[in-house]
Amino acid sequence: MWLQTEYNHAKTYLQIQQMRFWNRLSVDLEDFPKNAEKITVPRLILQPILENAFNHGVRNLPENGLIRLRFNQKENNLHIIIDDNGNIDDKIIHKLSEKLQNNESIRETTGPINIHKRLQLTFGMEYGITLGKSDLGGLMVDIKIPIEKI
């Protein structure tokens, strides 16, 4: 599937959530980079991450929830960064990061772990997901993929 198609599906998902929660959710969606139009990726790598950001990050905020999707090119890699302003403990981020890196979690069916493993199978072990604390206060998910076409 083209990354552009994935982006369009993710954008639609965010627009629906923003309409549903218009009084307490904002979305900061960066324009899709032109040089990434022909990148092929596994299906459903963005929408489940955005769904997690919504459900576990901002859904229960009484106001001013924010989900952000950005792109950053470093050398021959594209980083798709999804973050939110929810409240997440550093211990939870550490625990989730360990699950991503743990080879035993290959049977894990949660969205981020499934996406991480599929990206590694498609592009190689140096690609996939890393987690961190967002400068917004919530979780930051960095999806790293190669820019060259596969």
Distance between the termini: 11 Å
Order of helices and strands: HEHEEHHEE
Instruction: Just name the CATH architecture.
Output: 2-Layer Sandwich
**What percent of the residues sit in helical stretches (DSSP H or I)?**
25-40%
Average of the residue pLDDT scores: 91
What proportion of the residues form beta strands (DSSP E)? 15-25%
Number of strand elements: 5
Number of domains: 1
C-alpha-based Rg, rounded:
15 Å
Helix/strand structural class? alpha+beta
What is the tally of helical segments? 4
Q: What is the highest CATH level, the class?
A: Alpha Beta
> What is the assigned CATH homologous superfamily?
Histidine kinase-like ATPase, C-terminal domain
- From the 3D structure, determine the CATH topology: Heat Shock Protein 90
Structure description:
- The protein is an alpha+beta fold.
- The chain has a single domain (3-146), classed as Histidine kinase-like ATPase, C-terminal domain (Heat Shock Protein 90, 2-Layer Sandwich), CATH 3.30.565.10.
- The protein has helices at residues 3-20, 47-58, 90-101, 111-123; strands at residues 25-29, 65-74, 77-84, 128-133, 139-146.
- It has a 5-stranded mixed β-sheet with strand order 1-2-3-5-4.
- β4 and β5 (139-146) form a beta hairpin.
- The longest helix has 18 residues, at 3-20.
- The N and C termini lie close together (11 Å).
- 29% of the residues are buried.
